[in-house]
Amino acid sequence: MWLNMWIALPLTILLTVFALRMIPGDIKPNIQKQFAIFSNKHTWSMTVLYILTFGSFIGFSAALPLSINVIFGNMMEVAADGTITRVANPDAPSALTWAWIGPFVGALIRPIGGWISDKVGGSIVTQIISVIMVVASTLTGYVMMLAYNSSDPNSYFAIFMILFVVLFAASGIGNGSTFRSIGVIFDAQQKGPVLGWTSAVAAYGAFIAPRVMGEQIQAGTPEMAMYGFAIFYALCLVINWWFYLRKNAYVKNP
Predict the structure, then answer these.
(1) Predicted structure pTM score
(2) How far apart are CA 192 and CA 26, in angstroms?
(3) What's the chain's average pLDDT?
(4) pLDDT tens-place string over residues 51-110
(5) Domain limits, the chain
(6) Which CATH architecture is the domain 52-77+90-244 placed in?
(7) How far apart are CA 207 and CA 155, in angstroms?
(8) What is the three-class DSSP state of 88?
(9) Which whole-number Å values give the CA distances from 152 to 12, 106, 177, 205, in the listed order?
(10) How far apart are CA 174 and CA 130, in angstroms?
(11) Which H/E stretch holds residue 86?
């Protein structure tokens, strides 16, 4: 299942790109001009960083209600003979009541990310939120593990929600910073196509994040999904530093 997912998504993207290249008629020259973005290394670095920010935002928007329903909707029960089973949590928090908060905070704070980036530079903001997301994702995974294996998961719900709101806030700020960086790095002709490309790829987060989360919850290890995201965020730290923050960066702190 995992293999099929990771093969199908890149294959879909490649086939779409190939189909666009084969479009006949008067529109073809304009399409070919837009395809110049794929020979620019910054298209690929910013695609990864846009997945970090917008991809995380849209992915967690779908994964949060799933996590609330499954992790906190059930709890561990120890029978008299020591047998442990998962049973319904009669006092489970409602995903409908709580899940909207994270996306709301992320969307509300996005303009602040752009404003701060205009003052200090987009990549330094992206670097800071990447560190926050590494830490918050790791801690969220740990709390999810505790809640999943607890006979009283509700006691972990408050810290779980706080950590997820931090993730949403960081991804929202980062969405503003990466948007700003794309505007600085690329010229007027490439800016639009790059934004369209990076947004389209990052939108797959709405499919990947809940799928990964659901599979790990089903396996009894929900924390592994968040640990995996933390590793990806750490990789984004390195990419952002290498391309935009190191001494001889290609474009310094766009």
Answers:
(1) 0.88
(2) 20
(3) 89
(4) 999 999 999 998 999 999 999 999 988 777 778 888 999 999 999 999 999 999 999 999
(5) 52-77+90-244
(6) Up-down Bundle (1.20)
(7) 29
(8) strand
(9) 43, 29, 39, 31
(10) 8
(11) strand 84-88
